[in-house]
């Protein structure tokens, strides 16, 4: 498990963050952040003051990345791109998450390497990772400023004949229903959202269309919600296009793989982050996934 508890020993009374800086080789801000997150404790008492003192033996919860051999598909001096398989978390949800893409990134490039954006666990495809703190700040700002173009492929239900420019505000809010934990909906009070959809190929035998989706904004579940709203839900989506009972059962992990396949038509969400395009240090990069998404779709639609 990536998060483990280590016994550390401070021979003299000293600032806890200074000890961590020297022991772990990290910056002061990072040491204080770890203390603030409750990673340090002594005799069962968690340190809450990131300027507090420590002496003697204490427990420190640290992240030790695990590798399962997932290699980046593209490497540059400042960043790398991974082609993430469906089902893999990008970032650990909590200290008990056994493995995520973050493990591979830090195992390969070191503690200062980090993910610059996220895609859903069930979405496959390209994830951009920074190899140091400077490139992380730069790339994250480029995403915020919409200087990085993302294109996705999706297999949707029905025959989509014409390109679409979907401009529907998206809202995530809590109400009396338990159905809201991960649910985003089209709502006039939501944030402005825009997705361009282009049909690529229609498969009449299965009545489905391969589309390219280009999100202009980056809202949570944006492509999934917009396609559901125009009545072309993504095949394999266990939330959007399902009734409330089944969606909640999926979120609560009470639905078997067999049930999920019968309800959604596939064993996974048929959405793939296909390409990234951006200019970094005056160089234009166009990174395209090498995965055969269409073949993966048909494989996921076969009964096991």
Short account of what is shown:
This protein is α+β, with helices and mostly antiparallel strands. It has 3 domains: 3-63, Roll (Structural Genomics Hypothetical 15.5 Kd Protein In mrcA-pckA Intergenic Region, Chain A), CATH 3.10.290.10; 74-145, Pseudouridine synthase; 149-276 and 282-300, Pseudouridine synthase (2-Layer Sandwich), CATH 3.30.2350.
Question: What is the beta-strand fraction?
Answer: 25-35%
SSE order, one letter for each helix or strand:
EHHEEEEEHEEHEEEEEEHHHEEH
- End-to-end Cα distance, whole Å, is 30 Å
Count of all domains: 3
CATH architecture of the largest domain, please? 2-Layer Sandwich
The best one-word shape is: elongated
Instruction: Give a count of the beta strands, DSSP E runs of length 2 or more.
Output: 16
Poorly predicted runs of 5 or more residues:
none
- What's the CATH H-level homologous superfamily of the largest domain? Pseudouridine synthase
Count of alpha/pi helices: 8
Structural class assignment: alpha+beta
CATH level-1 class of the largest domain? Alpha Beta
- Provide mean pLDDT, rounded: 91
CATH topology of the largest domain: Pseudouridine synthase
Helix content: 10-25%
Q: For the CA atoms, what is the radius of gyration?
A: 22 Å
């Amino acid at each position: 498990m990536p998060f483990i508890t280590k016994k550390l020993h401070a021979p003299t009374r000293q600032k806890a963050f200074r000890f961590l800086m020297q022991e772990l080789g990290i910056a002061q801000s990072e040491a204080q952040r770890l203390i603030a997150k409750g990673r340090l404790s002594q005799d069962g008492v968690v340190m809450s003051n990131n300027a507090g003192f420590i002496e003697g033996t204490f427990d420190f919860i640290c992240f030790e990345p695990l590798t399962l051999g997932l290699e980046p598909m593209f490497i540059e001096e400042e960043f790398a791109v991974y082609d993430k398989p469906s089902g893999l978390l990008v970032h650990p949800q909590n200290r008990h998450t056994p493995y995520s893409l973050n493990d591979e990134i830090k195992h390969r490039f070191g503690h200062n390497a980090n993910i610059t954006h996220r895609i859903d666990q069930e979405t496959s495809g390209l994830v951009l990772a920074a190899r140091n703190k400077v490139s992380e700040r730069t790339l994250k700002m480029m995403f915020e400023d919409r200087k990085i173009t993302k294109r996705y492929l999706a297999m949707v239900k029905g025959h989509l004949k014409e390109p679409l420019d979907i401009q529907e505000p998206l809202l995530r809010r809590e109400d009396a229903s338990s159905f809201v934990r991960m649910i985003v909906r089209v709502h006039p009070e939501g944030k402005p959202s825009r997705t361009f959809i282009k049909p690529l190929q229609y498969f009449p035998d299965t009545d489905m269309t391969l589309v390219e989706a280009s999100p202009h904004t980056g809202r949570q579940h944006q492509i999934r919600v917009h396609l559901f709203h125009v009545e072309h839900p993504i095949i394999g989506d266990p939330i959007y296009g399902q009734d409330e009972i089944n969606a909640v059962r999926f979120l609560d992990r009470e639905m078997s793989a067999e049930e999920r396949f019968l309800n959604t038509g596939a064993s996974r969400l048929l959405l793939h982050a296909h390409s990234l395009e951006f200019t970094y240090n005056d160089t234009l990069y166009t990174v395209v996934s090498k995965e055969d998404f269409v073949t993966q779709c048909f494989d996921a639609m076969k009964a096991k």
